[in-house]
């Protein structure tokens, strides 16, 4: 049933139009971004070992897995952490979730 689909809407601060994508259970917000060509850094490869996949969850955050101490530590080191900050690789979705996420400006170093 289509009403159990999970969607993630990605918003950007640089004028790019928002994009909404369907996610399947078990995927992380990082997976869905990368699968859809959205640039989101992930220096540690998605194992909660860095802070580069930092995003803001504007809606739906209550349905996500609880934030771990480790995730919290890395968020503290991210740029401009806020109360709704999460690490995208740790935001694993289940069915029937509607998330709205802001992707902060991405700084790609060392091209
Ligand atoms: S990719 Fe490193 S913590 Fe998410």
Automatic annotation (TrEMBL):
InterPro entries: 2Fe-2S_ferredoxin-like_sf, 2Fe-2S_ferredoxin-type, Adrenodoxin-like, Beta-grasp_dom_sf. Its cofactor is [2Fe-2S] cluster. Keywords: 2Fe-2S, Iron, Iron-sulfur, Metal-binding. Signal peptide: none annotated. Pfam families: Fer2 (PF00111). It comes from the Bacteria. The keyword Iron applies. Residues 6-107 form the 2Fe-2S ferredoxin-type domain. The keyword Iron applies. Transmembrane segments: none annotated. Belongs to the adrenodoxin/putidaredoxin family. This is 2Fe-2S ferredoxin-type domain-containing protein. It comes from Hymenobacter glaciei.
């Amino acid at each position: 049933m289509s009403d159990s689909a999970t969607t993630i809407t990605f918003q950007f601060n640089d004028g790019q139009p928002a994009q909404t994508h369907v996610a399947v259970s078990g995927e992380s917000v990082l997976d869905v971004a990368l699968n859809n060509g959205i640039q989101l850094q992930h220096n540690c490869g998605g194992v909660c070992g860095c802070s580069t996949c930092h995003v803001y969850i504007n809606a739906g955050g209550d349905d996500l897995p609880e934030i771990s101490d480790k995730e919290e530590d890395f968020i503290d080191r991210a740029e401009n952490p806020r109360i709704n900050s999460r690490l995208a690789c740790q935001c694993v979705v289940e069915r029937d979730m509607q998330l709205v996420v802001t992707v902060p400006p991405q700084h790609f170093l060392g091209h």
